[in-house]
Amino acid sequence: MPVSVTVPPRLAEVMSAAYVTALGSPDRIQVGELPVPVAGPTDVLVAVEVATAYLAWFVHARRRAGEAVYVGGAGGNVGFAAVQLARGAGARIVASAGPADHWRCREAGAAVMVDYRDPDLTAALRAAAPDGIDVFWDTSGHHDLDLAIEVLAPGGRILLTAGGAARPALPVGTLYTRDVSLHGFVISRANASDLALAAGHINRMLASGELAVQIAGELPLAQTAEAHRRIEAGQVRGRLLLRP
Predict the structure, then answer these.
(1) What sign has the CA pseudo-torsion 216, 218, 219, 225?
(2) What is the residue extent of each domain of the chain?
(3) pLDDT, tens digit, 9 for 90 and up, residues 183-192
(4) Domain 48-189, architecture per CATH
(5) Sign of dihedral through CA atoms 203, 209, 211, 216?
(6) Which of 79, 105, 117, 197 has most Cβ atoms within 10 angstroms of its Cβ?
């Protein structure tokens, strides 16, 4: 979880991980043995999905207390973290996920849950937020900008953080006449100051018991290949723990 960390050179020589060598685009993320000395823009280490949620709400969307927010893909790791951080910041949360995940998302703080497969999702979201949604964030990477426009309040914000290959239609006229703005970001471009603030916020939530992590299961370290197989097959909701 979020800590300030220095990896001893001896340990770094045998550690294999994903790490960031410099601020910038996602191609700065390297996978392999950690370099010696460990390279990186900061010594702040954070849980990626929770830090992404912090950057979304507090840096890019500049969410204000009392606003209504929409979290698409709330059953996923980033979406689940987004619900918890929005709850802690006083937002009214409307979220979508498969029915099996609704109870967890409600416990995490969602006021209203809808099924993302609802054939009339627009009507469901309008009913959940009659005055409009202030921040629209689909963490699943399914960017339906027409849906966003239909349910956003004037001056609303749309966050873009996933689905790099998506090419959705852009309803330009409706966007600017309703004063709607789009904010795209990636955590590998976050500066050290924002990451440090994210780490502090996360630590406070952990200390107060406001932040839960989804644990999908545990496996011995010898079954690392099996853990990867499950993740790549889409069989994991949450985190798999590997025990040495």
Answers:
(1) positive
(2) 48-189, 216-244
(3) 999 888 888 8
(4) 3-Layer(aba) Sandwich (3.40)
(5) positive
(6) 79
